[in-house]
Amino acid sequence: MTTPLIEIKNLHANIDGQEILRGLDLTINPGEVHSIMGPNGSGKSTLAQVLAGRDAFEVTEGEIIYEGKDLLDMDPDERACEGVFLAFQYPVEIPGVRTTQFLKAAINAVRKHRGEDEIDALDAVKLFREKMKLVDMDESLLKRAVNEGFSGGEKKRHEIFQMAVLEPKLCILDETDSGLDIDALRIVADGVNAMRSKDRSFLLITHYQRLLDYIVPDFVHVLVNGRIVQSGDKGLALELEKKGYSWVEKEPAAATA
Amino acid sequence: MTTATEQTINEFTGKGYKHGFVTEIESDSLPPGLNEDVIRFISEKKKEPDWMLEWRLKAYRDWLEMEMPDWQNVNFHPIDFQKIIYYSAPKKKPQLDSLDEVDPELLRTYEKLGIPLEEQKMLTGVAVDAVFDSVSVATTFKEKLAEAGVIFCPMSEALQKHPDLVKKYIGSVVPTNDNYFAALNSAVFSDGSFVYIPKGVTCPMELSTYFRINAMNTGQFERTLIIAAEGASVSYLEGCTAPMRDENQLHAAVVELVALDDAHIKYSTIQNWYPGDENGKGGIYNFVTKRGDCRGDRSHISWTQVETGSAVTWKYPSCVLKGDDSIGEFYSVALTNNRQQADTGTKMIHIGKNTRSYIVSKGISAGFSDNTYRGQVKVLKNASNARNYTQCDSLLMGDKCGAHTFPYIEVGNSTSQVEHEATTSKIGEDQIFYCTQRGISEEDAVSLIVNGFCKEVLKELPMEFAVEADKLLAISLEGSVG
């Protein structure tokens, strides 16, 4: 039996005293691609933020075991260094900080965590060039301040590019498809697909089925009111598309995959 | 609730002052107190010409008639001028020509501060004048500079060797009775640096002065005078540190810059005087008058300052743009943390035609500190086609600090153009989280974000000092994330 990459058990989380996640269970094995779908306000983005360690959310119950360790016990930077990556829905701008400077700081933080030496400047440039091709990103973006003045599409590609550079084990994509036109969506999806491997797992958070036409998940889960109410394969996403979320909202909770 | 981020800001801004040690060295000091005899003593000690003593005494008499200004946006304990020691010098008299004769304890002090005075160990291309309490203890690379015709020496030496030059220029930019602290400085200044770059000469290396206050209850009153003759150019940097003491110490310097036709002076400051402890006890009062006179046509004076130290900073490095087509610039980063207060900015006085000025001010406030930008842009009647652009940004860390902006704009010529832009922002939890999610520690994240915020100013610093400034910002912010 494979050891799961991450096991989420009975997760409850609040923000400002309001409960958003109410007993969420989810297990992801290495190499698997899971998709979480659900109506607005169901807790999809909260799950992503809690996994990444945003301290505005308070976990009141449950546990998250990541590679045998207690994820909730780690600070956000430690989680990142251990291979948890979140592609943000709304990446922020950091004025005056060059993208290359930012990425180098990130790579070196991860390397330091692993007890490795800092990356050589030339190797870094080589790495950036290679990974930019994955998402067809313009090289000029590297010289600009992080996300500053990037278009919506550029920001999303930039997230996937960073993911490719940092080579995480668990990639969480929070509505990466929102705001992308069909061509950009295809490029981003190709980038993600190129990164799929037996040692890397994905959690795709999306509102629409559309993304799943390009990145085909192994499992689809439906999140309603902070709990997974239904799980299945790609077929479930198509069914949702046809029937709408009201259909699962009425159904009793099914067994998880 | 204290969030993790808040904690980091607190840790980040409180990591402590690294230059707070005291050097045990015998010194030759006057008892505290100020009167005409003290001034005579200082002048005598420096073997000054008679006119200099008269100049000092006149300044003193003016000072007695003046009152401490009260318009500033900072609060501090009243200063008892009779409790200050106005002269303190390391006992072993340093021989100015050779470093071998400098007290080894002093050399170690500068070594500890990261400023080795032995020339072979120094950054190549930077000449240093080290001022310890009231006197200059060492000046490096003098011979090499002399070959180029550049004079770089302690003010006390300049008064003996180049009295005519000093007499011609001293007080010509900042008159003795310019303001309360300038008058005091004129009366009691004990040393400082003197620079003269002759016509057409580009100074072959960066010049710098490191100021160190060591003795207790001592005021530091240095006077710096830099003259760039026609077509000359020079880049000068000053750095400052002091031991940690519970009493406040006064630093009241005067800096005068004179740029003749086509001359260029770039003056950079990294100010790291002891800021006091986290409760606001002790620290330096940094009350300084700095002014540049663009006396010649097409002259250019540029001020860059990184102000992270001092309990209270109160200064406005300014440019008087007299020459036609002259340019004045002011780039400033002022960072306050804990109980620090800063009221700083610049004055740009446009007198000549087609004069231009450019102001970029970045204020960062953390802890319980208060940070004020105060700037004056004045365009006189005949200054046709004058241009000014001012950008003034404030960054707040946490919710207990303050940022204030007071621009004064006076325009007397209708062909001129003045622009002022100001922003205030809070360091975003979003930005910090974005960085930490990529593996960067919270502390490094804050440092990265602040560095980005100050980038336009930091890039103006000479290369050799940019790294130092970077580190200083990070250290000064330790414990401030919120």
Q: What can you see in these coordinates?
A:
- The complex is a heterodimer of chains A (257) and B (482).
- Chain A is of the alpha/beta class and 257 residues long.
- Chain A has helices spanning 44-52, 76-81, 99-113, 121-134, 140-143, 152-166, 182-195, 210-214, 234-243, 245-250, and strands at 6-15, 18-28, 33-37, 57-66, 69-70, 84-87, 94-98, 145-146, 170-174, 201-206, 219-224, 227-232.
- Chain A starts with 5 loop residues before the first strand and ends in a 7-residue tail after the last helix.
- The model of chain A is unreliable at 253-257 (pLDDT under 50).
- With 482 residues, chain B is α/β, with parallel strands linked by helices.
- Chain B starts with a helix and ends in a 5-residue tail after the last helix.
Brief summary of the model shown:
The complex is a heterodimer of chains A (257) and B (482). With 257 residues, chain A is of the alpha/beta class.
Beta-strand content bin of chain B: 25-35%
Secondary-structure content class of chain A: alpha/beta
How would you state the average pLDDT of chain B, rounded? 82
Whole-Å distance between the termini of chain B?
11 Å
Q: Tell me the major beta sheet of chain B.
A: 11 strands, mixed
Structural class of chain B: alpha/beta
How many helical elements of chain B?
12
In angstroms, what is the radius of gyration of chain A?
18 Å
- Kindly, what is the distance between the CA atoms of the first and last residues of chain A, rounded to a whole number of angstroms? 15 Å
Q: Strand fraction band of chain A? A: 25-35%
Low-confidence stretches of chain A: 253-257
Order of helices and strands of chain A: EEEHEEHEEHHHEHEHEHEEHH
- Computed Rg of chain B: 22 Å
The global form of chain B is globular
Give the fraction of residues assigned to helices of chain B.
Answer: 10-25%
Question: Of all protein chain pairs, which has the greatest interface, and how many residues does each chain bring to it?
Answer: A-B, 31 and 26 residues
Rounded mean pLDDT of chain A is 90
Poorly predicted regions of chain B = 1-6, 8-14, 93-97, 119-124
In total, the number of strands of chain B is 23
Supply the number of helical segments of chain A: 10
Q: Order of strands side by side in the largest beta sheet of chain A?
A: 6-9-10-3-11-12
